[in-house]
Design a protein that fits this description.
Helices cover 26% and strands 26% of the residues. By secondary structure, the protein is of the alpha/beta class. Strand 12 and strand 13 form a beta hairpin. The structure holds cytidine-5'-triphosphate.
Length: 205
């Protein structure tokens, strides 16, 4: 199977030296990429700026902004069977990027605009032979929001997990399918979960 994985954070520039980022470590994506390679899949990884180590034996596309990730997904998705969006894509980006370094001021207001929803976009161009899988990072107890995203983004599977997962070696996820099925897993290392998720993703075809 040809598997496209996105991972890590995005950085949205404010000026030539500053950006808005997030705390994603990329570890979940690293584990997924490794599990997919080990399962014998052909893997493309679209990766934001992270320090995590990544598996050999895959094609890696490094990006920085959500716009670059969006472009890369649009180019790559048609040649893949499965898209797993594990990236923590910025929801907003500064509307204007200042050239050079903005000098210090008494206060600074940055006007932001919403970024494109990459996964929802992929859901719209998805062929009947393709599948999309997303992640939903929520405050504990908000599994209903994950179900809403599963349907709104036309996903085949969504992983609900809580904010405690961030920067952690382990995850306590629930898997949700469009037919209403839910599978809740006991807390497990991200590497073990990645293997389980790849197995479930294979069953989507
Ligand atoms: N995602 C995406 N493009 C974005 C934002 C998120 O493709 N601009 C993907 C993420 O990679 C993840 C899923 O969508 O797989 C998470 O969606 P969501 O929870 O909607 O992200 P948030 O924007 O954090 O949602 P909300 O702010 O409503 O909690």
């Amino acid at each position: 199977m040809r598997v496209l994985i996105t991972a890590g954070p995005t950085r949205e520039p404010i000026d030539a030296v500053r950006y808005i980022g997030n705390r994603s470590s990329g570890r979940m994506g690293a584990a997924l990429a490794e599990a997919a390679v080990n399962a014998g899949h052909q893997v493309t990884l679209i990766l934001g700026p992270v320090s995590a180590a990544f598996a050999n034996g895959l094609r890696r596309i490094d990006i920085e902004t959500s716009g670059q990730m969006h472009e890369a997904v649009l180019v790559e998705f048609p040649a893949h069977d499965l898209l797993i969006m594990a990236a923590a894509v910025a929801d907003y980006r500064p509307k204007a990027v200042h050239a050079g370094k903005t000098p210090r001021q008494e206060s600074l207001t940055i006007e932001c605009e919403a970024t494109a929803d990459i996964l929802a976009g992929a859901g719209q161009i998805k062929r009947p032979d393709q599948r999309t899988v997303g992640f939903s990072l929520e405050l504990a107890g908000n599994i209903g929001r994950a179900r809403e995203k599963l349907l709104r983004k036309k996903l085949d599977l969504i992983v609900y997990n809580t904010t405690e997962t961030m920067n952690s070696e382990s995850i306590e996820p629930s898997l949700l399918w469009p037919d209403g099925r839910v599978e809740s897993l006991a807390r497990l290392p991200k590497a073990r979960f990645a293997e389980a998720l790849m197995a479930r993703a294979t069953e989507l075809f």
